[in-house]
Amino acid sequence: MANPQFHLSGKKDRCVWCGQPLGPPFITVDFKEGTKNAPTREVKVCNETCKTDLIETEKKFEGKAPVFIGALIWLLLSSTLSLILFSKHYNMLYLGIAGVLIMGTTAYFLPFVTPQTVQMMGYKKGFRLGRIAGIILIVVGILAGVLVYVTAPA
Ligand SMILES: [Zn+2]
């Protein structure tokens, strides 16, 4: 049985890696995302370069989704805890900030984005966006850390 296909959104067929409209020639690849239960799908890319980039990049993320999910859960837990407890223990704010920094670092190295994001812009730009989001989180975390440090009650 043929694999199900995966297309980017839009009227014109686009390369799933770089997001550019596909002209002939293009190539079809059987592609599986790096997450455990992802199905193998038939995708179209511009050429061998896009194919290699797509497969090599995804290989780096293979099996690492639990790390990303772990960081996300830790972020939710630590920020909730620090928001509940900081009125009594001001230092608890650092817990939430640590969660933000861990999430930012994780997102930088493992820029998992939603399937909707990929469908909109392709894998390449999707990963870039995830990476930028990671950097923003790191910057916000550092600024928040400085702010908390400066405003800490003596
Ligand atoms: Zn391409």
What can you tell me about this protein's structure?
The protein is mainly alpha-helical and 154 residues long. The protein has two domains: 1-63, no CATH class; 64-154. The chain is 58% helix and 8% strand. The protein is built from four helices and two strands, in the order E-E-H-H-H-H. A two-stranded antiparallel sheet has the order 1-2. Strand 1 and strand 2 (40-45) form a beta hairpin. Helix 2 (65-85) packs antiparallel against helix 3 and helix 3 runs antiparallel to helix 4 (115-151). The protein is elongated. The protein binds zinc ion. The site of zinc ion has 7 residues, from loops. Zinc ion binds at residues 15, 17-18, 20, 45-46, 50.
> How confident is the prediction overall: mean pLDDT?
94
Overall tally of structural domains: 2
Q: Count of helical segments?
A: 4
Shape: elongated
Report the end-to-end length measured between terminal Cα atoms. Answer: 69 Å
Helix content: 55-70%
Spatial arrangement of strands, main beta sheet = 1-2
How does the SSE layout of this entry go?
Layout lengths: L26 E6 L7 E6 L2 H14 L3 H21 L7 H17 L5 H37 L3
Antiparallel strand pairs: 1-2
The site of zinc ion has 7 residues, from loops.
